[in-house]
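Summary for the steering committee. One of the milestones for this cycle was to obtain a three-dimensional model of the protein with beta-D-mannopyranose bound, which we needed before selecting residues for the alanine scan. The sequence and ligand used are listed below.
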Amino acid sequence: MSSTYHKRAQHETLIHRYEKNPILTAQDWPYAINTVFNAAATLLHDGTTLILCRVEDRRGISHLCAARSRNGIDGWEIDHEPTFFSDPENWPEEIWGIEDPRITYLPELDTYAVVYTSYSRGGPGVSLALTKDFKTFERYGSIMPPEDKDAALLPHRIGGCWALFHRPVTSIGAHIWISYSPDLRHWGSHKMILEARRGAWWDANKIGLSPPPVLTPEGWLVMYHGVRQTASGSLYRLGLALFDEHTPEQCLLRGNEWFFGPEEDYELSGDVGSVVFPCGYTIAPDGDTLRLYYGAADTCIAFATASIREMLAWLHAYGHPLEKTDYPVL
Ligand code: BMA
């Protein structure tokens, strides 16, 4: 490691936490729950922010519940009962609940796609449902078998096919892959696109997509989590990578450092301490400010903002194109 690496007086701050975090906790819920965290987010056509929250009950089983707000920060109107919950009689892959949704609006279908983790005896897998109103959902069922999770759709077709980022666990580890489908049901052309590093790195051994990729003038900006195993448990932190707009399996830049990690009390302690886990964002009217919703310590939902422009500049300053030797090798 070169000595120039240590010349910065301090790290750049890319993430700005809302001072009144957390924005939603179990106490806010209209019915009895254990925790609420890892929420997907979208802006509805009338400008309302909708977040689809992972809610865990006291059995340990999760379902999804929608909350709506005019300003996306407070005044949440929370559905009075679970919005979308497991239906194991018809969908056995959901026997232990549904978790960690990501929402992508698909203009071609004028529909929201909800990609979520379905949890069963085989482990976590990836399931898909479509909805126009977050009241009724059309289930497509399991689209990636266990063990797989941390998945999101891109909003439009690439070369005629829908594209899904996801994180299967295989004998070569827990890396990020992309797969394509002509109809959202049949998936193929699987390619590994970002590999967990090894050894001491913050993103060694296990990585996964966090919120859906953000389309920017330079390509798809991807926030991904790295899971560092330590003597006192797992540390979930976020890093950045940039993928080509038209060939999203091509990684253009990858940051070496994490930019967002657990620091505040509500991130450090809870059911699972030292976890920040964003599953959704909306983009502010300025077209640059990401309004991020993240689960903190698997216990509550917090809010932060970040500038897309600053994230791209940071990637140019502290990222690097993948060297030949960095390319994922099967
Ligand atoms: C991951 C997922 C997330 C969770 C995180 C930390 O594997 O299960 O839902 O937030 O672990 O517990």
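Key point for the committee: Helices lie at 265-268, 308-318.
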